[in-house]
């Protein structure tokens, strides 16, 4: 049984369309994803693909004008708003993308201690600070007294000290120097190795591949492929979706091949393949129908041509 399971998740936001009229702008559609205990699943994609919205949906912290369909379960039980509130910060912890999540009026050590649910709070906080090269003097400082990199390390420390079984890390490494970044990612790997599940949201394929077991690739609000980390090798022939191969081949070490065109604008929910306008293999079928998700070579793909 998966620790976290997301089935056909769709999200749209209510927007005024004129006098007494409302419309819904779709942002995520028919998204599928699982995270097992003991694994790191990295969610990759360009800015605007919907990666952070996925994290906020799992935690139940979307704004009130969001409309959600589909189903999410944690340990086999449905994630209702009431259950999300009970699990948030306890069994499910977030490493947020922005350091603005830190309380500006509270010393950061105290904030991390608030996240600790079991054991000696101060000892757990200091142990976590040592892991991320934060001295004891840092615990008495306020967020405005920290550099951007130090503030990010505090956020990671809070999540890993919490004792949560599912860690959602939303772009946790920007601003960290390479050594600290490797330590932070390595810590997520260690948490998975002792039975936690980690959902690592990132745009950095290379760093994600150092710790991830599986990679979920998002495009225009949905997951187009879920592949094993080992499939990201060579020229990408083991990958299933043309967008995933394009991302891989765009890396400097893989040829630096640019991908022409642009993704659909936010709110353009395609009735066909969202990638069709940029895909050299697109046919009429791609332009008129939404490709279903199917299993292929021990992975998942949303493409009628994948083989």
What features would you highlight for this structure?
307 residues; 27% helix; four-stranded antiparallel β-sheet; 9 helices; globular; 12 strands; alpha/beta; Rossmann fold; single chain
Tell me what you see in this structure.
The structure is a single chain. With 307 residues, the protein is of the alpha/beta class. The chain has a single domain (4-16, 23-91, 164-301), classed as Rossmann fold (3-Layer(aba) Sandwich), CATH 3.40.50.300. The chain contains nine helices and twelve strands. The strands form two sheets. The protein has an eight-stranded mixed beta sheet, with helices on both faces. A four-stranded antiparallel beta sheet has the order 2-1-4-5, covered by helices on one side. The mean pLDDT is 93.
CATH superfamily: P-loop containing nucleotide triphosphate hydrolases
Return the average pLDDT rounded to an integer.
93
- Fold-level CATH name: Rossmann fold
Strand content: 25-35%
Sequence-ordered SSE layout with sheet pairings:
Layout: E1 4-16, E2 22-35, E3 40-44, H1 51-59, E4 66-74, E5 77-78, H2 81-87, E6 92-95, H3 108-115, H4 121-131, H5 148-161, E7 166-170, H6 178-193, E8 197-202, H7 205-209, E9 214-219, E10 222-228, H8 242-249, H9 284-288, E11 294-296, E12 299-301
Parallel strand pairs: 3-8, 3-9, 6-7, 7-8
Antiparallel strand pairs: 1-2, 1-4, 4-5, 9-10, 10-12, 11-12
Helix pairs in contact: 3-4, 3-5, 4-5
């Amino acid at each position: 049984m998966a620790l976290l399971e997301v089935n056909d998740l769709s999200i749209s936001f209510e927007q005024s369309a004129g006098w007494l009229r409302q419309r819904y702008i779709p942002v995520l559609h028919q998204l599928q994803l699982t995270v097992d205990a003991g694994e790191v699943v990295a969610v990759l994609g360009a800015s605007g693909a919907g990666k952070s919205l996925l994290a906020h949906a799992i935690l139940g912290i979307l704004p009130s004008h969001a409309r959600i369909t589909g189903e999410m379960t944690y340990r086999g039980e449905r994630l209702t708003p009431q259950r999300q509130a009970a699990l948030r910060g306890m069994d499910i912890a977030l490493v947020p993308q922005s350091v603005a999540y830190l309380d500006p009026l509270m010393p950061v050590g105290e904030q991390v201690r608030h996240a600790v649910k079991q054991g000696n709070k101060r000892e757990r906080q200091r142990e976590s600070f040592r892991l991320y090269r934060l001295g004891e003097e840092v615990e008495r400082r306020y967020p405005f007294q920290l550099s951007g990199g130090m503030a990010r390390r505090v956020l990671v420390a809070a999540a890993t000290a919490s004792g949560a079984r599912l860690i959602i890390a939303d772009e946790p490494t920007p601003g960290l120097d390479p050594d600290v970044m490797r330590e932070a990612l390595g810590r997520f790997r260690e948490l998975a190795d002792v039975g936690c599940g980690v959902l690592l949201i990132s745009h950095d394929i290379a760093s994600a591949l150092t710790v991830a077991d599986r990679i979920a690739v998002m495009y225009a609000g949905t997951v187009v492929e879920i592949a094993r980390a080992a499939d990201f090798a060579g020229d990408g022939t083991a990958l299933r979706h043309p967008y995933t191969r394009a991302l891989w081949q765009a890396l400097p070490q893989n040829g630096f091949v640019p991908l022409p065109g642009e993704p659909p604008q936010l709110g353009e929910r395609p009735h066909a393949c969202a990638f069709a306008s940029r895909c050299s293999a697109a046919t009429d079928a791609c332009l008129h129908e939404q490709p279903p998700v199917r299993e292929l070579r021990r992975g998942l793909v949303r493409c009628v041509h994948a083989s």
